[in-house]
Amino acid sequence: MTAVFKRAAAAEAATGVIRVASPPIVVSPLCGVAVAGFAEVVSRFGGIALTRMLVCGTMAARWGSGRTKCL
User: Fold this and answer.
1) Rg, C-alpha atoms of the chain
2) CA separation, residue 63 to residues 31, 37, 66 (Å)
3) Which member of 4, 22, 62, 63 has the greatest number of CB atoms within 10 A?
4) What is the structure's pLDDT at 65?
5) How far apart are alpha carbons 67 and 1 in whole angstroms?
6) Tell me, what's the pLDDT at 1?
7) Residue-wise pLDDT tens digits, 43-65
8) CA–CA separation, 18 and 71 (whole Å)
9) What is the DSSP string of 3-71?
C-alpha cells in the first residue's frame, strides 16, 4: 500500500509542477479545450494547491498530524 501512495504522491507533484509551469499541457488533454487568459491563471493556482497538498501531506506523515501546522 505504501508503494501505491508514493506513486500517487509523485504523480500529484508532477501534475502540480507542470500546471504551474505550463497549464495547457495538462488542461488541454483533460478538458479538450484551449487554455487562455483567466483560465491559465486559475490553472496555475490549482498547480500551486496540488504542490502544497503534497508538501503538507508529507509533513503530516513524517512528523505526525498533531505537530504539523500547514496553513
Assistant:
1) 14
2) 37, 40, 8
3) 22
4) 57
5) 24
6) 57
7) 888 888 888 877 777 777 777 65
8) 23
9) HHHHHHHHHHHHHHHHHHH-HHHHHHHHHSS---THHHHHHHHHHHHHHHHHHHHHHHHHH-TTT----
With a threshold of 0.85, does the pTM exceed it? no
Amino acid symbol at 63: W
Instruction: Tell me the one-letter amino acid at 55.
Output: V
Distance separating alpha carbons of residues 50 and 2, to the nearest angstrom: 20
Q: Nine-digit cell at 44?
A: 496555475
The whole-number average pLDDT for the span 34-38 is 83
